[in-house]
Amino acid sequence: MSETTNMATHRDVPGVPDADERGLTQAQVAERVERGQTNAVKSSTSRSLADIVRANVFTLFNGIILTAMVMVLVAGSWKDAVFGFVIIINTGIGIVTELRAKRTLDRLSILVASDYLVRRDGRDVDVPHNGIVLGDLLWLRSGEQVPADATIVETWGLELDESMITGESRTVRKQDGDTVYSGSTAVSGMALVHVTAVGAHSYAATLTAQAKVYKKNVSDLNKGINTILKFMTLLVVPLCVLLIVTQMNTVGGWSAALASGAWRQAVVSSVAGVVGMVPEGLVLLTSLNFALAAIRLARKDTLVQDLDSVETLARVDCLNLDKTGTITDGGIVYDDFIALPACTDKRQAMQALYDLANEQSPNGTGRAVLAGLGAQGLTGTADLERVPFSSARKWSAVAFHDAPEAGPGGVWYMGAPEVLLSALSTPYPDVLEQVDGYANDGMRVLLVAHAVGPVPADFETDPKLEADARPVAIVLCSEHIRADAEPTLAWFREQGVRCRIISGDNPVTVGAIAGKVRLTGDRKPVAMDARKLPQDVDELARVLEGVDVLGRVLPEQKKAIVQALHTQRHVVAMTGDGVNDALAIKEADLGIAMGNAAPATKAVAEVVLVDSKFSHLPDVVARGRQVMANMERVASLFLTKTVYSALISFGVVLSMIPFPYLPRHISYIGALTIGAPAFLLALAPNTRRYIPGFLRRVFAFSLPCGIATALAVLLSAWFIPRMMGWDVASCAAELTSWRSMCATVLFVMGVYVLARVATPLNSWRGWLVAAFAAAGVVGMCIPFIARFFAFQLPGGKALLALGVQIVIATLLFALSVWLFPKFLPKATRTVISQYKRVSGR
């Protein structure tokens, strides 16, 4: 610590405690440091690197696939183990995503680290942010961020910007004895404060600690996949055992299989059934599409910090908007100068207004007035006396000693209309009514008054508002509304998303701004003071249904509002930029932070609009809808494979035949009829709104297709040997040909399923189906590919037998697709028809 000299004058200010309150001694500081009562906050998250790796590596999906891959490798058939690469890719994506989130959370800090001036042993010394201890006497100066919670001992015009904490956009004048909270910023004046809470016990650190708690978003899509995996686990283990037993019997029993090495082929055949039941491609495709959506959004200055949140975008039906930073940009603009009847010279009054605003450090309103009048050619007057604006007085004044060359003459006042009017000897009810009308329209209203005559001798030392002054003009300013706010809100209305504005500002002001941006269209927004909200969550939810705008909202209330909307099964998105928004953003299903937001807010948000443009939100939601709608479409492909693999496995167990195809067959067929087409279909434009019932619709599609495919393959497996007179259990050549023909039937059925998923086919989707069907046929004719994937082209009687089975398969597919929906419950048929109508299928 080093002693400073630039604060010597502050120690001489009358009223500053010296003898009785000389600050802590070095011994007291050392004692508090020993007890850990410093302003240091331990930076950590609830997820370590080991936790992240463990959570992504040791999953049910990875366990099933890894076990199957090891079994195949042990059997010595590496060509049939290519399906295992999906583990590496999918796990890598998950680990990288969560490590990014961990790094963001670890860097989270609401407070800006810098040196502060404290009084110790009667001297003012600089200490770092973490060196402040409980009980310190701290100098808080203009421009500094409050580092710890404190009580004001004495103040010299201290004004704080608490917007990052409370959401209130106006500065707050502080008095002796008031509490100041860490995270707020001193915008003017100074104060000596007594530190009452440090480190993890301060207000900002408490918010940070709550924001740092790791929250893993689980999408509906991933929950559906996990549900399927859990079900498949119960099915896979006993079925795998049964398959191994069956396949051992087909090669002569356990003894013969172990003696001859035929057990290897039995293991590979069993794995073919197990792997087909696991929708491994769906897990990978989900991760890849979330990542691609994030990349596309990044090109539009939108950062997605949690890939699973991309899917949440599709389901959002309730959007809570913070006013400042979202609807408005936080700036003030000068709108109008309205001369009142007492104004004899408008140009002179405007010159006085310019001089009133032209302080050494004007506030936001003053800067707006200077910019507006400066554009009209006005400049400052040199010779004048000034009483600067004070939040305690609520007005400022300038005096011109009646010299024509010096300015407009007399004393001019600018300030809060109700304060100025109440001090005048003559009532002006018409002016007050006019002021109230502008205020109710969301304007920031100032009043200019003029007192004619000589300037009082004590004008600067003991300023008073002259009772005989007359109001001469009303000055209108307003918060600058983003140009993209109204069209963006209109888009959300058209999409059926309910928008609410939640702000710490006056509800009347916020309601007026909401009306300007047509938050509710032609209907006037319903505004409410959040201080009147009920505490009970259920009652709060009922109240919120009829409210569009909430003002005077505290950070805890923002979080409670999100929780109340959740009780009504709403999927809630929350935007914001202040620390006061962090808890609500974290509680929401989808947190959206502006690029200029506080670090804490950006760290807990799933999506960050880097350039702070509200107009990006439609792109964000549309991208989420594209991913969800298309992934729901292609999920049907993968689950069809799960259904037919399970049914074929049961058929094989019951009929005690060799498994009709190899793992490499399912890899080839899956790549051409499921994996690659699904990837392309998932990238197609699709902005349909999400409709609940994902799992029901997918199964309603997959079951008939899966049943038809399973029957087609099993019929081929049973009848082809009879038609050809083959003994597939004992002849290796006939077994290879038989499996190749069964795999071909499976490929044909896969093309049929792909065509049904891709409907309508009168577009590029039809060409996509035709291209992959042709690629599959051509691949079977290329010697290298045919050898690697164990395909043989049939000829003569075998070709005829294959043709008959393909015709039967076609009839089975058409029959099952037509017949199955008739057995579905009416509610399910309604959901499916609604889905088809909005998706164009």
UniProtKB/TrEMBL annotation:
It is found in: Cell membrane. Residues 1-21 are annotated as: Disordered. GO terms for cellular component: plasma membrane. Residues 9-21 have a biased composition (Basic and acidic residues). The chain crosses the membrane at residues 52-75, 81-99, 228-246, 266-292, 634-659, 665-686, 698-718, 738-755, 767-786, 798-820. It is a multi-pass membrane protein. Residues 117-210 form the P-type ATPase A domain. It comes from the Bacteria. InterPro entries: ATPase_P-typ_cyto_dom_N, ATPase_P-typ_P_site, ATPase_P-typ_TM_dom_sf, ATPase_P-typ_transduc_dom_A_sf, ATPase_P-type_domA, HAD-like_sf, HAD_sf, P_typ_ATPase. GO terms for molecular function: ATP binding; ATP hydrolysis activity. Its main location: membrane. Pfam families: E1-E2_ATPase, Hydrolase. Keywords: Membrane, Translocase, Transmembrane, Transmembrane helix. This is Haloacid dehalogenase. It comes from Bifidobacterium castoris.
